[in-house]
Design brief:
This protein has 18 helices and ten strands. It has 377 residues and is an alpha/beta fold.
Length: 377
Amino acid sequence: LFEKIDKKKNIFFVPNIMIFKFSSFIKNLIILRRTKIYLIKEDFISFKDFFSVLNIYKKIKTLFKKKNLDKNFQLADLIKEELLDQKYTFSNLESFMNYVFIKNLKKQAINIKTSVVWFENQPFERSWSYALNKYHENSKSVGYMGIVPANMYISQDHTLPEDRRYKLIPKNILTIGNYFKNNIKKYDSKLKTTTVSALSFQHLFNKKKTNKINQILVALPILKKDSDQILEICKNLMNIKFLSKFKLIIRPHPTTNIQEIKKIIINLDIKNSQIDVNKSFYDSLKKSKFFIGGMSSTCLESVILNIPTIIFKSNDYLRSSCIPNIINRKHYLYSKDYNEIIKFMKKNKKNSLILSNKIRNSCFKIRSNNLLNEFNL
């Protein structure tokens, strides 16, 4: 896709610079400006624009002072907390910048033919779509949901008719498989969706077989509490006789400090354990006989590759999993109970689970030969 885009001169990338250290922010601005394919939002936003965000918060306070609204609207306090208590967070400020950037492009007579935004239905995406639909009505507004949404994040898993009606989302949502195409329309059958290439999951269509070895792969989640509990479980698992010849390969979350994980592993004294040094998660996964993960698409990949999968149950009230409902529960275990995990692993130690390619083909679409057309570019 990048190779094909590079041949066109009218396609630009607009990055969100998620850096809070001022010196690093400036350094990255300089690097990005050296390449002509980037449009920097900050270059189109004046100080006057930026400080006008304060007026928004004043208007919100005024709105919720109206007695008739507070009396009849029981969610008023919750909305005030959401809008005002977090008013200077990255999400809120970036959302405002997206809106002003799109608006100012129109003022400068720069028209957007097509907009492709990464779609997880988060605030800064919604502000982008709202401004685009308002100031560039004729633009092709496209959202690429290139992820496997978690069922705990309801707004990510589904959209509402109000989202479309108030133009808070792209006009067309691109999903990576027919299952997600149908799933996101659960509450809004009129939502326009299209199935396109699952760019991050093409390795699942690799037909080359790999011999599995006696190893358990553990992909730690982003939350430290969950990671610590998973490592405690792993310590106990590696003391079991039937796993004595297994290696425990631990893959820290990309946002985690590896040195901290190493210290925890040393303190717990987990037998036969090591940090995963393989650059490719897929290369480690396809060799494994068991997989332990959290609320991540890695669990779905593991199930599709016929690997007995344990999904750590981090919450007793909210189901935090990325496994679609079409997959039978016998193919994986959703638990944090040590005894349940041992029982599941003993039952499936011969790796007898067989899952047809039907699930893979339902969740993920193989790469198209015409990617530019798929993305309306």
